[in-house]
Amino acid sequence: MQKILSAMRRAIQDYKMISDGDRIFVGLSGGKDSVLLLSALAAYKKFSPEKFSLEAVTVDMGFKDAPQAENLALTEYCRSLGVERHIVKTDIAEIVFEAREESNPCSLCAKFRRGALNSEINRLGGGKLALGHNADDVAETMIMSLIYEGRFSCFSPTAFMDKSGVTLIRPFIYIEEYDIAHTVKTLNLPLVNNPCPQNHVSQREYAKNLIKHICKEVPFAKDRILGAIYHPERANLWKKPE
In a 3-state reduction of DSSP, which class is residue 87? Predict the structure, then answer.
């Protein structure tokens, strides 16, 4: 956990993610990233130079076979941290997979989930939304943008969303997925199984496997990809002459 806290604190300070008096809501899906993010922020809160409050928001997608026992265990874990958990009931699963029968539903689903999170945060009085995107997500997003959209792009460490008025922060951008998985297993944190039928068959999964394949031939490839994103001065693209 010390390694996680050190990298998270560096990201928070580098991008000024947290200020005195902030009300931070963790988008708690029950996956390893969001559960460890909640745990890490609860630990960081004890020694942070900025004083902030911490809560959790979970979007109930409406899957009929969602694991109830695991969900209750996660609620109990939130209580043990002294964190209030808010659960938003939705029919996103029905809309995406039944009503609209989307062939590539991940983008639409993410948009609905983000909207539900933002609406709940505003209903509760406003605050910042913390998401568990990690360093692997950073690299994968850039690859997905390049392949599927034809542009060099990635999400921002922090972002103010005009429509909702919610500021989004990503404190795990310097932390690799391997370290997150190892820490979650070591601490035996409670996770909730993802019932989504698209789990592990998405465009992001393809990007993840592509990077793994490249790294077999070029072991430092992911580090170079991340370096190009973390250090904008390395983006040496063509410029038209003056």
Answer: strand
In contact, 53 and 22? CB cutoff 8 Å: yes
pLDDT tens digits for range 123-171: 999 999 999 999 999 999 999 999 988 888 889 999 999 889 999 999 9
Domain ranges of the chain: 2-234
CA angle 193, 199, 203 (to 5 degrees): 150
Cα 193 to the center of its chain, rounded Å = 16
Task: Please give the Cα distance from 1 to 34 (Å, whole number).
Answer: 14
- Per residue in 96-133, pLDDT (tens digit) is 776 556 566 777 778 888 899 999 999 999 999 999 99
Q: How far apart are CA 25 and CA 68, in angstroms?
A: 22
What is the spatial distance between Cα 117 and Cα 112, in angstroms, rounded to a whole number? 9
Q: Any idea which fold 2-234 has?
A: Rossmann fold (3.40.50)
3-12, 18-27, 144-153: range with lowest mean pLDDT = 144-153
* pLDDT for res 171: 97
Alpha-carbon torsion 71, 128, 133, 89, what sign? Answer: positive
Tokens in use for 226? 């991340």
Rounded Cα–Cα distance for residues 42 and 44 (Å): 6
